[in-house]
Amino acid sequence: MATIRASCADCGDVELTTADVNVRICSDTNDGTYSFRCPHCEMTVVKSAESRTIDLLVASGVSFATWQMPAELSEPRVGEPISHDDLLDFHRLLEDDRALEQALTELAG
């Protein structure tokens, strides 16, 4: 099992095994990160990594997972962004049973 050196922001350089490190790769952008739990402070550390580093980690036996960007990111955006006031108004409407019943009736058409 390979020894991997990484750094924790609080503890400095640490030595890990391939079982201690996980790699995540975005299949849409090929961006990658690796993460590990620091053996000293036990905090999870996540770092961005260039593809060369990701390739070396995976080649040394580190497990990896791929993920995709949410489809909502490619949906068209129309209108102004919601504000905090909009969110509060929506919350109040959800607490109002009459307003919720009326909205559901309108949707059922």
The CA-CA distance between the termini, in Å, is: 63 Å
Mean pLDDT: 94
Query: Strand order across the biggest sheet?
Result: 5-4-3-6
How much of the sequence is in beta strands? 25-35%
Shape: elongated
Main sheet overview: 4 strands, mixed
- Secondary structure: helix percent: 25-40%
* Number of β-strand runs: 6
What's the multimeric state? single chain
Helical segment count: 3
Q: From the alpha carbons, calculate the radius of gyration and give it in angstroms.
A: 23 Å
Task: Give the arrangement of secondary structure elements.
Layout: E1 3-8, E2 12-17, E3 21-26, E4 32-37, E5 44-49, H1 51-59, E6 63-67, H2 84-95, H3 97-108
Parallel strand pairs: 3-6
Antiparallel strand pairs: 1-2, 3-4, 4-5
Detailed description of the structure:
The chain has 109 residues and is an alpha+beta fold. It has two domains: 3-69, no CATH class; 82-108, no CATH class. 30% of the residues lie in helices and 32% in strands. It has three helices and six strands; from the N terminus they run βββββαβαα. It has a four-stranded mixed sheet. A two-stranded antiparallel sheet has the order 1-2. A hairpin with a 6-residue loop joins strand 4 and strand 5 (44-49). The longest helix has 12 residues, at 84-95. It is elongated. The chain starts with a strand and ends with a helix. The mean pLDDT is 94.
Observed structural traits:
109 residues; alpha+beta; two-stranded antiparallel ribbon; 30% helix; elongated
Question: Can you describe this structure in just a few lines?
Answer:
The protein has 3 helices and 6 strands. The chain has 109 residues and is an alpha+beta fold.
